[in-house]
Write a structure and sequence with these properties.
single chain; alpha/beta
């Protein structure tokens, strides 16, 4: 299927590793020009060079700040010579902590990057996109936004706020701009595998190591697909929703969760 993205200008945040890196790769494979933003510029530049992604422009920004969001958005407009056709808000952080172990600073830090970076990016770019003729926004949220657990408390609250704002923007900027969100379930990314990542917590909870701990988590959560997802699963959904092929879809949440969310709503 031709997703009609060749020659489109795409702005992606949180693009150095995991889901974000795969989003960048898939847009580039569709022939789009990509402005990729992350605080980890070395990792971003490394895979862009290694993969020969000549249509991708890496850019450093701290998106947990207003100035970082605005500087990155303005640099993208300058690079493209106008507003982007597509914006993907993927930047985010999260830790497996219960409510009692979180303080004000934890909530502020999580909301600044997850929710406020999305809000600030949209506020900077959407009016310019409307003036240029419109476009598409895809926000990467989480299945935990609608099916919260007793851990990830600040993370899932920030993602729920993102879902709500996505639907608001879909109404406010229609018909010029479509706004949707993709809500991943558990996806194997560096957030799991890095030192201090989710895997260590899962291992401690189950008293198991590595794949055995992951398999126990999959059984415990009763994931119908019987595995964790991978970044390509999520990226494919993002690219589809961003494309003109999904031109009558706006204000929607697309779950990429292996069947973990079973509520009828």
């Amino acid at each position: 299927m031709d997703l009609q993205l060749a020659g489109k200008n795409v702005y992606v945040t949180g693009s150095a590793t995991g889901i974000g890196a795969e989003i960048v790769r898939q847009f580039a494979a569709e022939g789009a020009r990509v402005f990729a933003v992350d605080i980890n510029l070395d990792a971003l530049k490394a895979y862009v060079a290694d993969d020969g992604l000549t249509s991708v422009e890496p850019f450093y920004a701290d998106l947990s700040t207003l100035s970082g969001c605005n500087e990155a958005a303005d640099a993208a407009v300058a690079h493209f010579g106008g507003a982007p056709d597509v914006v993907v808000n993927n930047a985010g952080i999260g830790r497996m902590l219960p409510f009692e172990e979180l303080d004000d600073e934890d909530f502020h830090r999580t909301f600044e990057l997850n929710f406020f970076s999305m809000m600030r990016t949209c506020k900077r770019l959407l009016p310019q996109m409307v003036a240029a003729g419109g476009g598409s926004v895809v926000n990467v949220t989480s299945d935990l936004a609608g099916q919260p657990e007793t851990v990830f408390v600040d993370y899932q609250a920030s993602k729920a706020a993102m879902v709500n704002l996505s639907k608001t923007l879909a109404r406010a900027y229609a018909p010029a701009i479509r706004v949707n969100d993709v809500s991943p379930g558990p996806i194997w990314t560096p957030l799991w595998s890095r030192p201090g990542g989710y895997l260590e917590t899962v291992e401690a909870n189950y008293g198991l190591k590595g794949e055995a701990a992951v398999n126990e988590l999959v059984r415990d959560r009763e994931i119908p697909m019987a595995r964790l997802g991978n970044p390509a699963d999520v990226a494919a959904a993002v690219v589809f929703l961003a494309s003109p092929v999904s031109g009558y879809t706006s204000g929607s949440s697309l779950g990429v969760n292996g069947g973990t969310v079973r509520a009828a709503f």
